[in-house]
Structures are given as structure tokens and as C-alpha cells.
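Action item from last week, closing it out:
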Amino acid sequence: MVVTKVFSRQINSVKDKIWEIICAIRDELDDHLDAINQNTNEMQSNYEYLCELDSKIEKLNERLDKVQMMVEPQPTVSDIILTKREQDVFFILYNTNDKIKPEDIAKKTGLTVPMINKHVTNLVYKGIPILKYVSDNDFFFEIDPNFRDIQSKKGIVNLNI
């Protein structure tokens, strides 16, 4: 019986030590969890701030494009001569009342996306104000609405389509 009491005390002592270790591990894990939650909240806050900055930068770019349109002299009818493919791309951009992806232009023209991008670059180089937008890693194009109005009134770009 004495052996059983000694053995029982040793078992209880081991149980107490194991319980202390488990409590220490739990406390340490709780501390880690708190740190992870704080980092997650900070990362979320930073992400939201970056999204807000992206939005503001996009608005600034739009305003700069409008200012540039006002500062630069407007082309006349004889100033802009387009190739057949450039006319195709211009026609789609001109007749789209909203932003359009290069992939959608490619589907409508039968050209590849790199060719669409090249033709858009050529149009911009020739003085046609095409606005470029980025949203969720997608690119969108749109003809400046002011230019669209001028084109409808004065026919700056002669379309032979």
C-alpha cells in the first residue's frame, strides 16, 4: 500500500508537470495567435489604404488627361490619317460608350491583343486621345468623351469604313 501511495504521488506529480507544460504551450500559442491577428488587421488596413490610393491616382490620371486635352491644340480634319486596321480599332472605340478591354476589340476585329495594343499606341501617337484604365489587373481603353464630341461635330478623323 505504501508503494501504491508513492506511485500515486509520482503519477500526480507527473500529471501536474504535464498540465503546467500544456498551459504554458497554450499561453504561448495564444500569444502567437494575438500577434497573427494584429498582423492580419494591419495588412488589411494597409491593403485598403493602397486601394484608396490607387483610386485617387486613377482619378488624377483622368484629370491630367483632360487637362492635356485642353492644353494641346486640337487636330483638324487633314491632320489624322489612319490605316485600315487603325480605322477598325478607332471605329470600335468610337462606337463604344464605355471602357472596353483589348481582348474584346480583338474579338471584334479578328486581330491579336498585341496587335490591338500596337494600333492603340499608333492612334495615341497620331493624336487621338485614348484613355487607358487599369482595374483588377485588367486594362481598358476609351476614347476621351470630349474628343468623341468634337469628332461627331467636326469629323477630325476621316473614316473610310
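Closing note: Residues 30 and 36 are 10 Å apart (CA to CA).
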